[in-house]
Write a structure and sequence with these properties.
Blueprint (H helix, E strand, L loop, with lengths): L5 E3 L6 E3 L2 E3 L5 E2 L1 H9 L22 H9 L4 H5 L7
Antiparallel strand pairs: 1-2, 2-3, 3-4
The structure holds zinc ion.
Length: about 90
Amino acid sequence: MSSVSMRRCTVCQACWIGPHLFWATGARGNNLDLAGLVCNTDYGGAGRCANPARGRLGGDTWEQREAWIRGVALPGEVAEGHPRRA
Ligand SMILES: [Zn+2]
C-alpha cells in the first residue's frame, strides 16, 4: 500500500508518479492539460496516450496557449477553469 506506482506513456513520454503527472520535460502538469495539448491531438498518437484523462476536455489547449502568447488571456484565467463561451 505504501509503494508509489510509476508509469510512463510510451507515446508522449509523460510520467505518472502516483497520481501526479510530469511532462517528458520533467515539469509538473495535470492530466487534463496533457489531454488537451497532447493526448487529444496527433501528438498523442491519435488516442493511444496512456493518460487516463485522454479524450476529456477542460484542460489547456493550443488555442488557449496561443491566446496567452497573444496576451488576450492570462494563464490564471484558464487554469481556474472558467472558460467563457460566446
Ligand atoms: Zn502520452
